[in-house]
């Protein structure tokens, strides 16, 4: 049985009752259409320590003719995963992919009467959308209408058929652990659809139960939406009720209901955890990002309208990594990152998301590119306008491989500590040292992980620490013992007890884990413990006492 459940202060994925986290990679969009092509990708993923791949499965390939299904490709992908002892999260590319309808079958794309397009300009099925208010150019844009119940029903029938296939093919072995429903939903180019049907819906009354739900869930809302909901009259048309926020709330209501139609049809057949991924709003105005999609500011709306969705997932290419993770976890949503950038924080972010957020999934997008120079699109996505050189440098492949294998080797222990204060982490990206008055890096005050009896301070700059993009997690075993796993960091242990302010080491050893079992290597002392450091990826086992 695969579930998402509470463990301590976190929501965790469990497989037959045991916590499990996905050390994953998402493949490029077209790769999983060919199992033959995938052979080398699986091997690479396995060698990188991954336990799961996120793989697109498209409506156009699984229902090429209406009512005729073909699941031979996902069937082969499942066999490939099993042969390597790995898992899959399938990404259902149905009505939406990057806020467009690229993966709908031909019979859907071509029947514009039965499956109408969204209009962002009245009367037009395809119109230019402006990328930014300051740029005079537009790009041609079309997508399926979120108001079309017939489209939602057709997508739901196909998704239910896919989930039935999964139940029959994999219900016993549980190779597939979750499904992402659609991909980056929402509307680009306008805050809402503007067809005649959309105008009529916008001018009709806001459903009373929806409004009542929002009014009862204002605690966690972002300020402007809370104000709009608190000031809303108890009935009326969308613009009268929600004022300036009406278009965004209207789009989120309809997109999330559409997704719920699809997700609930699939869940009724086979109840796997279901996720939705998100193209972030980056603080932009509605229409500049896929409006109505599961951006964190409208999670309360998605909670109300799409109860079959278990987790909201940010696709993170922006430099503000911690801000996004904090936003997505602030309401108790587990951290599931299906797409992350492959610059040189990539490996450290794995350590950090596991150690700090007790993440359910960390997955670089297009992971087979790790180590290669950035393509133009990658440069655009995460290399532009940033001053931090680490964001402009590709992740080193062998380092990623070492970190991936290291975290995977510790997975049973780490998963066991999920939801507790025994597992903490720091990273150079999120916890830089606070510089001293003279700005010298040597006098800077490093950030600390504080446990009951001890605290671990970690610096990511200084002698012998070259890259400046390190991370370190600490797994407490008991009051006097812990494991540290990290790279690019210097480490200082201190007592956290006022009554016993001193701490000395009893044992420091390097080593490795195999399936959670510790194999000691060198016992460290003398020069090696005078200044404890993990320059290359590695694990330390430390025992100490306070006095
Ligand atoms: C986000 C999408 O969800 C992915 O499928 C892929 O298109 C990436 N963007 C490309 O960077």
Strand content: 25-35%
Let me know the average pLDDT. Answer: 95
Radius of gyration computed on alpha carbons:
25 Å
Number of strands: 23
Which ligands does the model contain, each kind named once?
(2R,3S,4R,5S)-2-(hydroxymethyl)piperidine-3,4,5-triol
What's the helical proportion of residues?
25-40%
Number of helix segments?
16
Write down the overall geometry: globular
From the N-terminal CA to the C-terminal CA, the straight-line distance is 47 Å
Sheet with the most strands: spatial strand order: 4-5-6-9-10-11-12-13
Query: What is the SS-derived class?
Result: alpha/beta
Low-confidence stretches: none
Main sheet?
Answer: 8 strands, parallel, barrel
């Amino acid at each position: 049985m695969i579930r998402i459940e509470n463990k301590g202060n976190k929501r965790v994925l469990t497989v037959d009752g045991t916590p499990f986290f996905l050390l994953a990679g998402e493949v490029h969009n077209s790769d999983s259409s060919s199992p033959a092509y995938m052979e080398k990708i699986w091997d690479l993923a396995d060698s990188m320590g991954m336990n799961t791949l996120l793989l697109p499965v498209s409506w156009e390939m699984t229902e090429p003719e209406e009512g005729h299904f073909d699941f031979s490709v996902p069937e082969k992908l499942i066999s490939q995963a099993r042969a390597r002892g790995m898992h899959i999260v399938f990404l259902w590319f149905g009505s939406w992919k990057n806020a467009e309808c690229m993966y709908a079958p031909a019979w859907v794309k071509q029947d514009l009467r039965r499956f109408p397009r969204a209009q962002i300009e009245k009367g037009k099925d395809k119109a230019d959308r402006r990328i930014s208010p300051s740029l005079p150019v537009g790009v041609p844009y079309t997508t399926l209408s979120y108001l079309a119940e017939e489209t939602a029903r057709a997508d739901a029938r196909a998704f239910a058929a896919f989930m039935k296939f999964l139940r029959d093919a994999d219900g016993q072995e549980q190779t597939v652990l979750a499904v992402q429903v659609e991909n980056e939903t929402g509307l680009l180019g306008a805050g809402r659809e503007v067809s005649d049907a959309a105008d009529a819906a916008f001018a009709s009354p806001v459903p009373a139960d929806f409004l009542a739900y929002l009014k009862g869930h204002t605690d966690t809302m972002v300020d402007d939406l809370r104000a709009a909901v608190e000031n809303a009259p108890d009935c009326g048309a969308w613009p009268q009720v929600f004022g300036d926020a009406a278009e965004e709330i209207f789009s989120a209501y309809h997109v999330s209901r559409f997704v719920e139609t699809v997700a609930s049809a699939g869940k009724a057949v086979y109840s796997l955890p279901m996720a939705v991924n998100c193209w972030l709003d980056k603080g932009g105005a509605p229409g500049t990002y896929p409006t109505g999609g599961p951006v964190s500011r409208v999670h309360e709306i998605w909670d109300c309208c799409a109860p079959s969705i278990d987790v909201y997932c940010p696709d993170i290419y922006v430099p503000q990594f911690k801000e996004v993770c904090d936003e997505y976890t602030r309401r108790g949503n587990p951290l599931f990152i299906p797409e992350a950038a492959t610059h040189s924080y990539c490996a450290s972010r794995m350590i950090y998301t596991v150690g700090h957020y007790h993440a359910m999934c960390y997955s670089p997008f297009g992971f087979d590119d790790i180590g290669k120079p950035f393509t133009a699109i990658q440069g655009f996505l995460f290399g532009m306008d940033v001053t931090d050189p680490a964001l402009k440098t590709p992740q080193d492949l062998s380092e990623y491989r070492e970190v991936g294998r290291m975290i995977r080797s510790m997975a049973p222990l780490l998963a066991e500590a999920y939801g507790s204060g025994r597992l903490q982490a720091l990273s150079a990206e999120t916890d830089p040292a606070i510089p001293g008055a003279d700005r010298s890096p040597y006098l800077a005050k490093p950030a600390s992980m504080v446990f009951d009896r001890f605290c671990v301070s970690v610096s990511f700059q200084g002698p012998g620490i070259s890259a400046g993009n390190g991370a370190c997690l600490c797994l407490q075993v008991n009051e006097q013992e812990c494991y540290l796993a990290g790279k690019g960091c210097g480490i200082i242990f201190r007592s956290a007890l006022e009554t016993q302010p001193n701490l000395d080491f009893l044992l420091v050893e390097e080593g490795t884990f195999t399936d959670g079992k510790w194999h000691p290597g060198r016992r460290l002392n003398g020069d090696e413990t005078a200044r404890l450091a993990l320059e290359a990826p590695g694990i330390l086992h430390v025992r100490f006492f306070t006095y």
